[in-house]
Amino acid sequence: MINSIQDTTELANGVKMPWLGLGVWQSKEGTEVEQAIAWALQRGYRSIDTATIYRNEAGVGRALKASGIAREDIFLTTKVWNSDQGFESTLAAYETSLEVLDTDYLDLYLIHWPVAGKYKDTWRALELLYKEQKVRAIGVSNFLVHHLKDLIPSCEIKPMVNQVEFHPYLVQPTLLDFCRSEGIQLEAWSPLMQGKVVDVPELMHIGEKYGKSAVQVALRWNLQHGVVTIPKSIKEARITSNSDIFDFELTEDEMLAIDALDRGVRMGPDPDNFDF
Ligand SMILES: NC(=O)c1ccc[n+]([C@@H]2O[C@H](COP(=O)([O-])OP(=O)(O)OC[C@H]3O[C@@H](n4cnc5c(N)ncnc54)[C@H](OP(=O)(O)O)[C@@H]3O)[C@@H](O)[C@H]2O)c1
Q1: CA neighbours within 13 Å on the CB side: how many for 96?
Q2: Which residue in 27, 44, 233, 251 could disulfide with 238, CB within 3.0 to 4.6 Å?
């Protein structure tokens, strides 16, 4: 049972990753992202999810320094962007991210998208970074089952995390089961359907029983599926309420009712059909 913001999942290599983190896609570089992170850390969040393409790694780095919280108490994720994929270019992109983030290491480095013909070379670079102890864990993002089945046989080290779009309208049970069976931790992006979960009546209805919002129910449903979640907000009240999900437990029936909302609807790009 996950009942505290400090609770963590243990990745395949034993590294502990918080179940809840703050996403910072579309949080503007500068005051906006720095303030959001400051509020999140005050509220007890200890995991931040950024990416080179978000163009706010510098602000993330400044916010972490300003917090005064020890670096080892933070779980920091960034991602190698598509145009940097390939072996040497990924190694270089990693060093640039460290510099911009103003840190000595990352907790998690992800391949942002499964760029065809490139992701195996990119993965070899991540394996090297891991073996050199420059990053505590490595993983992928937006990998479907067939991408993982293609990558895993050539891996020396299996991805420890797969960060994918995951919410009540896009449940992907096969992917979830596959990752679980391979010891890959699933992590949800757009867990709030980019804000649209607020209008899902079934979630509101379930929330009434617990005095929780549709957003909080959706996030709790992530946790009870064993899925790490990283809702984004730049608003203090929302950052706080999004973390107020550790004092109630959805029933089995409620979990199934939310699973049944699945429509296979994506808010973001399709990993099988993207052109960036
Ligand atoms: N790997 C990938 O390819 C990938 C892709 C997309 C996202 N991500 C990661 O996942 C994180 C989360 O996904 P996301 O940013 O796409 O979407 P999200 O977390 O599902 O939703 C964020 C949106 O919901 C609003 N919101 C937040 N809390 C709310 C609340 N309590 N009530 C009502 N609205 C609320 C936010 O607005 P305000 O900010 O104005 O509150 C924002 O517009 C990203 O920030 C990023 O770190 C990764």
Answers
A1: 15
A2: 233
Q: In the chain, what are the domain boundaries?
A: 16-259
* Ligand 1 site, residue 54, Cβ cutoff 6 A: no
What is the CATH number assigned to the segment(s) 16-259?
Answer: 3.20.20.100
Which of 209, 215, 196, 276 is CA-nearest to residue 248?
209
Ligand 1 neighbour 11 (Cβ under 6 A): no
> Is a pLDDT exceeding 90 seen at residue 233?
yes
Query: Within the chain, how many helices (H) and strands (E) appear?
Result: 10, 10
For residues 164-186, average pLDDT: 98
The residues near 106 (Cβ < 8 Å, ≥ 6 apart) are 76, 77, 78, 94, 97, 98, 134, 135, 136
Residue nearest to atom 9 of ligand 1 (CA): 189
Average confidence (pLDDT) over 184-211:
98
Q: Is this model's pTM higher than 0.90 or not?
A: yes
pLDDT at 88: 98
**Per-residue pLDDT tens digits for 155-166:** 999 999 999 999
Amino acid at 20: L
Q: H or E stretch including 186?
A: strand 185-189
